[in-house]
Specification:
Rossmann fold, 2 domains
Length: 265
């Protein structure tokens, strides 16, 4: 059992992008925050790993916007958010890339014995991810995995999943359902779970398991990962990057020009 004494952490501040709060953090800041919640164990917190897609979807879904703004931490997973942060006076060097956050957290904390649960992905992907994590971090404690069906869970199934996770007693639940499903799931289940932290990492399940290729570092660090992913999965991702991406750029330009009227819902 972990100690319950309060742990202080730095607060780098936050900025708003189209009425969605984004915390001006880097990966070490996120790890520090997550560890503080594990150690204090006061309640279940959730972390939204959000980029252009999540912010754009929130413009069409007020409930998603509220879910993002209710998150305990919203990290900038996307270079457009990093560029906006810099324009707002926050000197962020890099994005908080979901797959990298997962691996960096495991590497930094494996000696501390934290208990991990993997929720999301297909059974094959989830199993391969567990294998890859154990191969890279032999001492890691993965106490359970669950691959939900590709349909909404019934109320009984949802309760059973919560009970399965609670019985495993994880310190952190990694959620890989893609946006906005993972954010909605974390928000919905935070009151039912005893795990101190839920982190929605989306594509990290596919990438860290080896099921999908990762963009080269120069593309990830310079805002071109979208092109790599679009070329990999054009039928699935064309709308996200070509339509939502253009919409996002247009709305952000209006916001910076002070033309777009803030929506405070």
């Amino acid at each position: 059992m972990h100690a319950t004494t309060a742990i202080a952490f730095s607060d780098p501040g936050s900025f708003s992008v189209l009425n969605v709060r984004v915390d001006a953090v880097q990966i070490p800041d996120a790890i520090e925050r997550i560890e503080s919640w594990i150690r204090t164990r006061r309640r279940c917190h959730y972390v939204a790993v959000t980029g252009m897609h999540g912010v754009t979807e929130a413009q069409h879904d007020a409930s998603l916007r509220k879910i993002l703004n209710a998150a305990d931490l919203v990290v900038p997973d996307g270079m457009p958010l990093v560029w906006i942060a810099r324009l707002r006076g926050f000197p962020l060097r890099r994005r908080v890339y979901g797959p990298e956050l997962m691996m960096a957290f495991c590497e930094a904390t494996v000696s501390k014995g934290y208990r991990h649960f993997l929720y999301g992905g297909s059974p094959e992907v989830c199993g391969r991810l567990a294998q890859q994590l154990r191969r890279r971090f032999p001492a890691i404690s993965i106490v359970g995995t669950y691959s939900p069906p590709f349909r909404p869970l019934s109320s009984q199934e949802s309760a059973d999943v919560s009970e399965t996770i609670n019985r495993a007693e994880p310190d952190i639940v990694w959620v890989g359902l893609s946006t906005p499903k993972q954010e909605c799931w974390m928000h919905q289940h935070r009151g039912q779970l005893r795990a101190p932290v839920l982190v929605g990492v989306g594509a990290a399940f596919d990438i860290n398991s080896g099921a999908k290729k990762q963009a080269p570092a120069w593309m990830r660090e310079n805002g071109f990962e979208w092109l790599f992913r679009l070329l990999q999965e054009p039928r699935r991702l064309w709308r996200r990057y070509l339509v939502c991406g253009s919409e996002f750029a247009f709305m952000v330009a209006l916001e910076f020009l002070d033309i777009r009227r803030p929506d405070v819902r």
